[in-house]
Structure formats: structure tokens, C-alpha cells
Design brief:
The complex is a heterodimer of chains A (345) and B (522). Chain A is built from 14 helices and 4 strands. With 345 residues, chain A is mainly α. Chain A has one domain: ABC transporter involved in vitamin B12 uptake, BtuC (Orthogonal Bundle). Chain B is of the alpha/beta class. Chain B folds into 2 domains: 248 residues, Rossmann fold (3-Layer(aba) Sandwich); 161 residues, P-loop containing nucleotide triphosphate hydrolases (Rossmann fold, 3-Layer(aba) Sandwich), CATH 3.40.50.300. Helices cover 34% and strands 23% of the residues of chain B. In chain B, helix 6 packs parallel to helix 7 and helix 17 packs across helix 18. Classes of the chains: A mainly alpha (345), B alpha/beta (522).
């Protein structure tokens, strides 16, 4: 069972860190190419679609839409990133997103609770879900893959219950106003929320002792434990953080639509994984990293938007995201093998 | 046809180093043959050649039951050749039942579509009955006491031999027991020896590898002693005293020598004192050490000495025990690594890649892990953090002194220097090390010694658990020799030499059993 956890033994999912490698002339070309391959691929995709659909794809409106509508996925992928870095899977993030969005809708639209209070309740709920996940993982020492698979399903069931399996609309305009309607440089505000979170996580992972400790917990649990890091607490904290961020993604999701439906949130799970793994092949190849994830989300969104504009049916989304996940994991494995070989030389 | 195994002129060279040098051994049919010697004497190399794991130098010959066997032995062909191994770890899957373990090999290679469990259980029970062992084939391995697990592994190996000897009187087969008893209490070992004797009565031969000389003399017919890759002699067990065997093992005459047997108890003046530790193999151990003292812990495999540093650090909590550091009392049953670090301790474990440093992370982050909290967050990526990391690498002579490379890219010796730098930077009061120079090249080994002695000179108390007697002799002020989880003797000052430590490790059993004691002196 442990085999599915990226920290415990998930070899293919445990990439090798690639810091800037020392050479006589700074970064060598190969490393540089590796770090920015995804950015390059993204540009190629943009160019290709711009040639194929010069009017519909290559215009400002399309780009502002593309940037303005992916924040839910960005935040969910970033939520996922935290436990992944600590070596744990959290499959309940998408369900947390759905429930949090629904709680905001039900409280605000059906019970007249002020929107601010509803949001705080939703975020607290996210924290509680993370706490419960951590509780089962730590106290009973169960594989988080199984725990979060279970809790995620429970949460989806509870969401259906509180919503009566209905879409709840009539959420305060204040929320949609601050999520999608207000714009900065032509892009909806929510884009900047995702960007802000990305900067925050980048800061935590790259510039704080806490971030380093999380990384050590994920890469070498025993080393971390013997270095005095309270591994259980760190992992538990990561689940709680993931819960809160997933809940925030849910609030934005409801804000985007002005309503909440009890099922569509779960479709975000796979794209979030695809983005996290694809992101681990870029910027800091071999490590789950916020900027890589951020770029991966928009890379995937660009591809899908382009295909949709060319008239390809919606089934392509599944093919695209699923394929991206498998390719991303394979690529990170190739990177890992390459680095291990390099280390042996 | 009276020789089951004949080895002639077998040599094995590892990178210019002779691990086996012209070794010849013969084992008679129906004989229990002991194989003893110090760590690194070539015992395991010989066993691994028989298992097909090592390829020996050309020129050696091997014969089993009178049939020449081509060297190197083809891996996986052992049971066809009439060799059956039981290793120290027994090779059982603990979560499965006895019958599943017992028949694992047969079941996995059979082409039948349906496993008849009833029949398999019956076969297993029959095999146990043949050797007079009563174990329920349906029991899970985890639920069995240690001695029964060992019995399952041994009977399974004998059963394998049964296939080989079936319908052929010229075949005897050889059971190779590679220290399967080290983790068993003495009282339980007799049951294993019963099984060994029964198997011999049925025509097999046994090669019995052991560190425990009393045991080897008691159970074998003859014993071969290896030293530095050469056969030092083969003796008849019934006519040999333990002293003579020890002399063969360490290669010189025993001097009249009494170990000091000082028992250190927690004294008020001592810097660190450990009292009544129990847990794992350790039984009621107490000792004390002063500021600036390097204390060695050693013993043979299975004596439990290597468990103490981990218990003191809370890495594997003890069942009970107390520890006082600079006047502050700690309960060892409730110890944790973070509490130990707060108490001023540092542990350098033997498992470098798995427990001391993360191979896939940067040297910088590995070396700075204990002090990272002292840096201002937004400066973590560069500036003083990186400069200090580089400084630490220079100070401990890590080569190359480059913080921005992966830990796993360093050689073993340099990894160990990084680990030392990581912990010593934090300024611990007590340094615990376990096999600090394992997998470390000769040059780095000396640097590790220097680092440890320098730390002690600055007032740190050092505990070094090691089975490398030369190393203990080089750095320790005092050495405690363990046997069966207890301190059997203490060496101080001039007594600490490689030979004395070796001798004490092998002889320490004499103080346990008075009856043997008298026999030894006779």
C-alpha cells in the first residue's frame, strides 16, 4: 500500500532536485534547456494555434479569458503541491473545493448568512478536512492515498446532501464582482489571487526554513526525523494547508459562476495532478514547484482552448489532461534517472 | 564419496585486495563443519561465491558430492547443486503463513492452475515432523517466536535439499547456516541444534558460520578458522578449547590477561550518565562518560551494542532507562530525536543515505539543516546562508567544497564529512556515532578520526558504537564490550588495542557461564 505514496516509495514520483549546477560558466546549456523546456513548448503551442486560427485564437480577448478562467485549477494544483512536497498524496482536494463552494452558496443564498462569514466558514471547513485527513494518516499510520480517497468520497456525499443534489444559485454579487467582474489590465481579479498564492508558496518553499523542512520530510522521512524535525506535525500541517487552499479555490469557483453545483468540482482533480507533475519537470526540474505548476496550468489551458477553437469536441480535454499526466510523470522519471547517472559519474 | 563439499585453491580479489587467498576446505558427508573468523576474514566472501553472487579468480575448484561444479556458480542453481542457504535475515515474509513461506518457491514455479492448500499444508507438516518440530503450518510468521521462525527457515532449506537427494544415495547435499542464531537467546538455540543434528543423521552435511565460539564448538564436528582470507587451520571440535580457537582467529597467543570489569554507574561528577537502559537486545545497561571522553561500544553481531546510540537519541525508544546530561534528567522511554537535540545531542547513524542525508537534495541544504532556523527567511537562497554552507564544507575539508551539488554526487567519505559538519555546526554536547567510517575511503577515514578527537578535545562527550576494532583502538579512551545485551568488560588506556578488543569480544562469554569458565581455565 505504501507503494502509492510519493514519499514512501513512489520512486517514479520522487523527482531529483535540480539546483543550479555549478560549472565554469554558470549554468550549462543542457540544464537551461531542461528548466525552460515547458515554457518553450508553451510558446510553440501559442505560435501553432495562432497560425492555425489567426483571428479567433490570436487576439487579446482570447488571452485575457484564458488567463482569467484558470485560477480555480491553479489554486487547486498549488494546494496539492504542499502535501506532494511533503511526500503525501491528497486526493480529497477536489472534493474539498466542491464542498467549500457549496457551503458558501448554501449559507449565503439559502440562509442569508453574510458572504464574508460564509467564506470564513468555508475556509475553516477546509482546515477541518485537512485536520481529519492528517488525523487518520498520523494517528493510525495509514497511507494518505487511501485515507484521502475515502474522505474525498465522504465529502462529495455530504455536498450532495447539503445541496439536495441541486445547483444553488443566487450567491451575493459581491463575490462575483471581486472574483471575475473587476479587472486589472483586462484580466479578471482572480488571476492575481492565483498569482499571489504562487508567490507566497514560492517564498515559503524557497526562502524559509519551514519550506526546507517540508522538502526534507518529503525526500527523506528518516533523515528528517533524526534531524529533529517533527515529521508527523509537518505532514499534518501540510494537509491542513492543502485543505484551506482547496477551500479557497472552491470559494473562487462559486464566485466565477455566481452559483455552485454539487458535482463539477471533482473534474478538477486530474488536471490538478497533471499540472503539479508537469510543473515538476520545469523551472526547478525534479522538484514540485509553484512556478512550474503555474506555467503547466496555463500550458494545458492554452492547448485545450486552442483545440476547442479549432472545433475539436470536448472529449479532447480528458485525452489532453490524462495524456499530460502520464507524459509528465514519465518525463520526471527520465529526469530522475539522468540525474542519478550524473551523480554516479 | 565421503566428501560432500570440496573447495580447492579458491581465491578472490577485490580491486587488488585479496579477500580469499588460496582457500581449500573439505566437508565430509554427515558432518557439521564450523566456519569462524573475524569480520572481513573472508567468511561471507566464501559463502557468496557458493551462492553464485561473487565470481572468484580463475584457478579454484569446487566439487559437490563428488561432482565437479563449474565456477563461477550460476546464480539460482544452488538447489540443483545440492546447496541450501539460511541467512541471518532468514528470508521469510512475515505477513504470510508458515505454509505460504514454506512452499513459496514450489508454488511460484509450478505450472498448475490451482494450488491445493490442503495438500501443501500436509507436506509442510510432514517436513516439520521429519525434523521433530511442531509448528502449525497455518500460523503467521509474525505470530511466531523468533526461534520458531528460524526453525521454519531451516526446515524449509532442508526440505529443498530433500528434493535434491531424492532417489540418489550418492547425494548428500549441504545446508549452509550463515549465522541464523545471532538474534536468538542462548536458551533457544539448542532447539535449532537438534534440528541440525537430525538433518545430519539423514545424510546431509552442514556448514555452520558463527561468531559465537562456544556455540560453534558445541554443535560442530570440525571447525575451520579463516584469517585475512587464508585458512588458518581446521580443528576437531571435541579436542579444541576456546582459547586455542581465539588464538587461531586473532593470530597470536593469548596473554595472561584479565579484563578490568569496571562497572561504571552514574556518578554525580560525570557529564553524561545512562542508567538501567532496557529495550531491544539491551538489558539493564548503565554507564557514564565525562566531558571530552570518547567511549567505544562494541561486541559481536547480535550483542546489541549498536542499539544504544539510537536509544539514547530516541530514534528507537528504549523500554525504560534514564539519562542525565549536565545535570538534566531525561526519561529514555519518552525520548524523541527532537528532545534529544534540545538536550544537546547529535546522532550520526551508520545508514548514511537513508538516515543521515538526503541524496537527491543539495549539499547546502543537507549541511545547513540543523542551523537553518537561524537565518532570515528572505535571505535563504543566497548571501550568508550559502556563504556559511561553503565555509562549513571548507572547514571539514569536503571535496569538492561545492554547496550547490546533490549530496549523492559526493563520495562516501565526503558525505560523512558533510554529515559531521551538519551536526558539529550546531554545537552538541554529546555526539553519538555508529560505524562512522563504514564505506569511507582510507584518507577520509583519518579525517573522520581527527574530527571526532578534535570535538572531544573541545569538551564534547563522544559515544562511538562500532565493530571496527582498529577504529575503536585509534579514537577511544574507554571501550565497553557487549555480550547478549550487557556490558561484559571494560577496556581502558593501554588495554585498548585491536587485538585486545577482538579477544574480549570473543572471550566475553566466559564471564557469563561459570561452568564454561572453569572449563576454560582447566
Amino acid at each position: 500500500m505504501n507503494q502509492v505514496s510519493p514519499g514512501a516509495a513512489g520512486e517514479p514520483l520522487e523527482p531529483v532536485e535540480r539546483g543550479p549546477q555549478p560549472t565554469k560558466k554558470g549554468l550549462n546549456l543542457g540544464d537551461y534547456a531542461e528548466r525552460f523546456a515547458l515554457v518553450g513548448a508553451w510558446l510553440v503551442v501559442i505560435v501553432v494555434f495562432s497560425i492555425l486560427a489567426p483571428n479567433t485564437f490570436f487576439n487579446v480577448r482570447n488571452f485575457t479569458t484564458m488567463f482569467g478562467t484558470q485560477t480555480t485549477l491553479v489554486m487547486l494544483a498549488l494546494a496539492l503541491l504542499i502535501p506532494l512536497t511533503a511526500g503525501d498524496y491528497d486526493l480529497s482536494v477536489a472534493a474539498t473545493l466542491t464542498m467549500s463552494g457549496m457551503v458558501v452558496a448554501v449559507l449565503n443564498a439559502n440562509h442569508g448568512v453574510p458572504i464574508g462569514v460564509a467564506i470564513v466558514v468555508a475556509l475553516a471547513l477546509g482546515a477541518l478536512i485537512g485536520f481529519i485527513n492528517g488525523f487518520f494518516v498520523m494517528v493510525f499510520d495509514i497511507d494518505p492515498f487511501i485515507v484521502t480517497l475515502g474522505t474525498g468520497t465522504v465529502i462529495l456525499g455530504l455536498t450532495l446532501w447539503i445541496s439536495g443534489s441541486q445547483t444553488i444559485s443566487g450567491v451575493s454579487n459581491w463575490l462575483s464582482s471581486w472574483v471575475v467582474e473587476r479587472r486589472l489590465f483586462g484580466i479578471s481579479l482572480e488571476f492575481y489571487y492565483g498569482l499571489l498564492l504562487c508567490v507566497l508558496l514560492w517564498y515559503i518553499f524557497d526562502f524559509t526554513a519551514v519550506g526546507r523542512r517540508i522538502l526534507f520530510v518529503g525526500r527523506g522521512t528518516n533523515v528528517a526525523r533524526l534531524s529533529g524535525i517533527r515529521v508527523g506535525r509537518v505532514r499534518w500541517g501540510c494537509f491542513i494547508a492543502a485543505g484551506i487552499i482547496a477551500a479557497a479555490a472552491g470559494v473562487l469557483y462559486t464566485g466565477t459562476a455566481g452559483a455552485s453545483d454539487p458535482t463539477s468540482g471533482s473534474t478538477f482533480l486530474l488536471p490538478a495532478f497533471a499540472a503539479a507533475f508537469l510543473g515538476s519537470t520545469t523551472i526547478t526540474p525534479g522538484r514540485f514547484n509553484p512556478w512550474g505548476t503555474f506555467i503547466a496550468v496555463y500550458f494545458l489551458a492554452t492547448g485545450i482552448t486552442g483545440l476547442a477553437i479549432l472545433g475539436v469536441q470536448t472529449w479532447v480535454q480528458n485525452v489532453f489532461y490524462g495524456g499530460a499526466l502520464v507524459i509528465a510523470v514519465s518525463a520526471s522519471q527520465v529526469v530522475k534517472k539522468r540525474h542519478e547517472r550524473a551523480a554516479r559519474l | 564419496m565421503d566428501q560432500t563439499l570440496v573447495v580447492r585453491n579458491l581465491s578472490m580479489t577485490f580491486g587488488g585486495q585479496r579477500a580469499l587467498d588460496d582457500v581449500s576446505i573439505s566437508i565430509r558427508r554427515g558432518e557439521v563443519h564450523g566456519l569462524v573468523g573475524q569480520n572481513g576474514c573472508g567468511k561471507s566472501t566464501l559463502i557468496k561465491i557458493l551462492a553464485g553472487y561473487h565470481h572468484p579468480d580463475p584457478g579454484g575448484e569446487l566439487e559437490i558430492d563428488g561432482r565437479p561444479v563449474k565456477l563461477p556458480v550460476r546464480t539460482g542453481s544452488a538447489s540443483e547443486l545440492g546447496l541450501s542457504f539460511v541467512h541471518q535475515d532468514l528470508g521469510l515474509l512475515p505477513s504470510l503463513t508458515v505454509v505460504e513461506n514454506f512452499r513459496a518457491w514450489t508454488i511460484s514455479t509450478t505450472s498448475e492452475w490451482f494450488i491445493r492448500w490442503g495438500q501443501e499444508r500436509k507436506r509442510t507438516a510432514e517436513a516439520f515432523a521429519r525434523f521433530g518440530v511442531g509448528i502449525d503450518p497455518r500460523a503467521r510468521i509474525t505470530d511466531l517466536p523468533a526461534v520458531q521462525r528460524a526453525l521454519v527457515a531451516i526446515v524449509r532449506a532442508l526440505d529443498d535439499l530433500g528434493e535434491y537427494t531424492k532417489n540418489d544415495d550418492t547425494r548428500g547435499g549441504l545446508l549452509i547456516l550463515d549465522e541464523p542464531t545471532v538474534f536468538l537467546p542462548r536458551s533457544d538455540r539448542d532447539r535449532l541444534f537438534d534440528v541440525v543434528r537430525k538433518s545430519v543423521a539423514l545424510g546431509a552435511s552442514v556448514l555452520f558460520v558463527s561468531h559465537d565460539l562456544d556455540e560453534a564448538l558445541a554443535v560442530t564436528d570440525r571447525v575451520t578458522v579463516l584469517r585475512d582470507g587464508r585458512v588458518e587451520g581446521t580443528v576437531t571440535s571435541a579436542e579444541t578449547e576456546k582459547d586455542q580457537l581465539v588464538e587461531l582467529i586473532i593470530g597470536r597467543r593469548l596473554e595472561a590477561f584479565e579484563a578490568s570489569h569496571r562497572t561504571h554507574t552514574a556518578g554525580e561528577s560525570s557529564h553524561v550518565s545512562v542508567a538501567d537502559v532496557c529495550g531491544g537486545t539491551i538489558k539493564n545497561v548503565s554507564f557514564a562518560l565525562d566531558e571530552g571522553e570518547v567511549l567505544g561500544l562494541t561486541g559481536l553481531v547480535g550483542s546489541g551494542f549498536e542499539e544504544l546510540p539510537y536509544q539514547m537519541f530516541g530514534a528507537t525508544p528504549a523500554v525504560s532507562g534514564r539519562m542525565t546530561i549536565a545535570g538534566v534528567d531525561h526519561d529514555l522511554a519518552a525520548m524523541s530525536p527532537s528532545a534529544a537535540i534540545n538536550a544537546g545531542m547529535a546522532l550520526i547513524p551508520a545508514d548514511r543515505q537513508g538516515s543521515a542525508g538526503v541524496g537527491s537534495l543539495l549539499v547546502r541544504d543537507n549541511v545547513m539543516l540543523q542551523v537553518i532556523g537561524q537565518y532570515r527567511p528572505y535571505r535563504l537562497d543566497r548571501g550568508r546562508y550559502l556563504k556559511d554552507a561553503r565555509g562549513a564544507l571548507h572547514q571539514y575539508d569536503v571535496r569538492p567544497p561545492e554547496p550547490m551539488m546533490d549530496f549523492q554526487a559526493l563520495s562516501g567519505g565526503n558525505q560523512q564529512k558533510v554529515v559531521l559538519a551538519k551536526w558539529l555546526q550546531a554545537g552538541p554536547k554529546v555526539l553519538l556515532v555508529h560505524e562512522p567510517t563504514q564505506g569511507v575511503d582510507v584518507g577520509a577515514r583519518l579525517q573522520v578520526f581527527e574530527t571526532i578527537t578534535r570535538a572531544a578535545a573541545e569538551g564534547m562527550s563522544v559515544v562511538c558504537a562500532s565493530s571496527d576494532y582498529e577504529q575503536l583502538a585509534a579514537i577511544c579512551d574507554r571501550v565497553l564490550v557487549f555480550h547478549d545485551g550487557q556490558i561484559m568488560s571494560t577496556l581502558v588506556g593501554d588495554e585498548i588495542t585491536k587485538d585486545r578488543i577482538t579477544e574480549q569480544c570473543y572471550m566475553s562469554a566466559r564471564t557469563v557461564k561459570p561452568d564454561e569458565d572453569t572449563r576454560m581455565r582447566a
